[in-house]
Amino acid sequence: MHVHSTTVFGGPKLPTTATFLQRLAARLTQESAAPAEATPGMAGGPTTLTTAMLRATLLEMGAAADAQNLALAEAFAHLGLPLTRESLAQAHMALAGAPQTSPLAYALARAWSLPATPAVLRALTAVTGGDEQAAPEQALPSELMSWLGLTADAGMEPETLAAHLFVMAQGMGQSTEHRLASRPAGHQGALETVRDTRTTLLRLAQGSADRAIRRGADALAAHIEGQQLVNQAARRAGETPDAPFYLAVPLQLGSAAALAEMRLWPWDDEKDADEMPPDTPFLRATLRLATARLGRVQADIAGTLAGTLTCRLGAERPATARLLQRRAGTLAAALAALGGWRATDVQCGTKTDWPPLWHGGHALAGPRPCVDWRA
């Protein structure tokens, strides 16, 4: 991969506005940090499963090697779940009660110890079952999305855009159930007193006279719920104390709508930064954007306590990578001004691997481990 680099040096200020990323992630992930059974890991093995091997395994079990069973077997193998006739029968029963949901959603619900209810399967399918976790097909009108506060114009000033994303993420990231549970003791009132994005969308889905708006609001509410379930699973897995937070928000690029995906690592404000080495990571974030004109673009951002920031830009299309390289100096200067970074290094190149950003997605991008169903 050919990489271009641009470095901008600034003043001695330490990062300022960039802290919203870590503080947001830390705040939103605290609600789901309750201990629970860890997510099963991938089973080991010297051989990786091919589709032909999965088909042969299903036939040896006495199960049909149809599309649904193959999808279930593949997901089970990736996530280290037991593949038996009984587990397949349980999956068929759950999926039959939840039409248009994916076998992967069922496997994730099993791996994350979530109830395989139709609502949960639909929410997980909305986030993990589409092409690049695309936005819901039944899109709401842009005017309504703006009224809901669910669009961000990439042409905003950096400070304004950061503040807007912070408010939007708070409304989408914190679950309705947590808001109800965290109300002051003795507080009366039902769901009508709760103000969050998903609840507002559910009210639209139930009360709008426009059928298209009802469907669009319901689909977007399911997408937001799926994100909340993914983040809950990440915290309960307990793999690391600073599990990243996944967020997908609508973004308006001129007249085109896109979905911006973010993976944010939290920062604990109680840490004593003065006792840490200067190269300690202070800011970590991955941003991914998919548009019709530019294809997929990803930015991996990392900042240190010393005030240095690196941004690795990867583009799916070589032409987009060249365009980003021509604008690298402008981007480096903008990042330095936004966060008060002393030095900003921006590198651009093409990118070929695009694993899902949500928790557990890395397992699906790797080789399928060989498992023995007879065990």
The strand line-up of the biggest sheet is 1-7-6-5-4-3-2
Derived structural class? alpha+beta
How many separate helices?
Answer: 14
Q: Biggest sheet, open or closed, and with what strands and sense?
A: 7 strands, mixed
What level of helicity do the residues show? Answer: 40-55%
Shape, please? globular
- The radius of gyration over CA amounts to 22 Å
Are there runs of 5+ residues with pLDDT below 50, and where?
11-21, 31-46, 131-135, 189-194, 371-375
Element string (H = helix, E = strand)? EHHHHHHHHHHHEEEEEHHEH
Q: What percent strand?
A: 15-25%
Average pLDDT figure: 76
Total strands: the figure is 7
- Give the terminus-to-terminus CA distance: 43 Å
Report on the structure:
- The protein is 43% helix and 16% strand.
- It has helices spanning 19-30, 51-61, 67-79, 85-96, 103-111, 118-128, 142-147, 158-173, 176-181, 197-207, 211-237, 318-326, 328-339, 361-365; strands at 4-9, 245-253, 256-264, 281-291, 295-304, 308-315, 343-350.
- It is globular and about 65 Å long.
- With 375 residues, it is α+β, with helices and mostly antiparallel strands.
- The protein has a domain at 1-29 and 263-269 and 280-366.
- Helix 1 (19-30) packs parallel to helix 8 (158-173), helix 3 (67-79) runs parallel beside helix 5 and helix 6 crosses helix 11.
